[in-house]
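Most newcomers find our protein records easier to grasp once they have seen one. A record pairs a protein's sequence with a compact description of its fold. An example says more than a description, so a record of this kind follows:
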Amino acid sequence: MTTLARRPDTLTRDALTVLQPGFTGTTAPDWLLRRLGEGLASVGLFGRNITSPGQLADLTAQLRAERDDVLVAIDEEGGDVTRLEVRTGSSFPGNHALGAVDDVRLTREVAHELGHRLRACGVNLNWAPSADVNSNPANPVIGVRSFGADPELVARHTAAYVTGLQRAGVAACAKHFPGHGDTSVDSHHALPRIDASRSVVLDRELSPFRAAIDAGTRAMMSAHILIPALDPDRPATLSHPVLTDLLRGELGYTGLIVTDGMEMQAIAGTYGIERGSVLAIAAGADAICVGGGLADDETVRSLRDALIKAVRTGELREERLADAAERVRTLSRWTATPQDASAARPTEIGLLAARRAVKATYSEPYEPLREPPYVAAFTPVANFAVGDETPWGVAAELLRLLPGTRTGTFTGENAGRAALTEAGPGRIVAVVRDEHRHPWMSTALDTLLAARPNTIVVEMGVPQSPRRGALHLATHGAARVCGQAAAEIIAAK
């Protein structure tokens, strides 16, 4: 049994310090405020906690009244993954749209403005950007969250994003180390495996993370993925060879390492969150993210107790836990340092970026719509990271530009025929999302285009399928501003 060199109350505070839990509601519950007083140093916010910028500012002020140096984290990537605007859609295009434009200055400006808005609401840690190289087109969870499939492109935009966000005083968190792009399994549901060689992983997957480190990213998020070439036994989040030997040792990273959500089935369904959290800290992680699904005091208490027990039994070195807790405090101190947020920020930088990202393909000379169309949205099941709360598409924007626009949502093998029936004789705008991953979606477009060759197609996912339709628009994401940019082209407004 390990002999404790430090007081038990210090051990308890360290165990709480390394946790980043969530909670339900739009005000902080009593249990959370009590835990902040006991040593909890971080809180994670999700869409369920936010109704408006003013409410969010009040919430973060409530947290800081209990602990003024608390890290307030959020999963705000912009684009498809938004928590600030979870019920309206984001004012910023996501990574794939920025990668399609490939203007690093624009990426830096978008990230800076997003960071400015977060900082104004009291948020000081953003679990973004995704630095994954989307090398597998079948990837069900990364997709448009990635800047693209080219490692060099992803690297330069990751660095620009980190720079812009942190210039606004919000810590960036490059994710999901060592790279979630070459997977066909969503780690929210199971443990993905990447069988690439070590040389491929080092050259392809790690390039953006090296760039993030060079740009000074304050945090890095681990991936719940198994890469046998790096560690044949444990997923990256629980792997000493990945987090300590590779990330700390070979890459020289000194900032905070935070895990992806520990309640995701890749960990919860294999190791359990208590054991997984102990193994993650032992492997080199500094902070345990939990709260997307489990968001209560019982979860915090069980993880705290698991870490304390692991120290007392010798499974986890007390010095490793203390080191992890100190890295959390170091990041807290950085967020308290005034940053340069004075650069000019175009108020509509997100919309300007979304407009530049749209790629239009015409099969014939295009006449803008003058009459309201029927918008047929072919809707796949949303992945857990995106969620199904956030609206997407072009219908709302077309309704604004062309009053009388009607819309319907369709899915499954009969989607195309159902859309034709509902549309009636009017012009159709078909909206898809990752057509290449959904055979039923391609079949629906086949049906529509055979009956109505003048159908307009809007692809709001990764544009891997052939461009077709009288007008094909690839928006490279489904943010609200991406829909607005597409609608402006359709209606020539």
Q: What stands out?
A: The two ends are 72 Å apart (CA to CA).
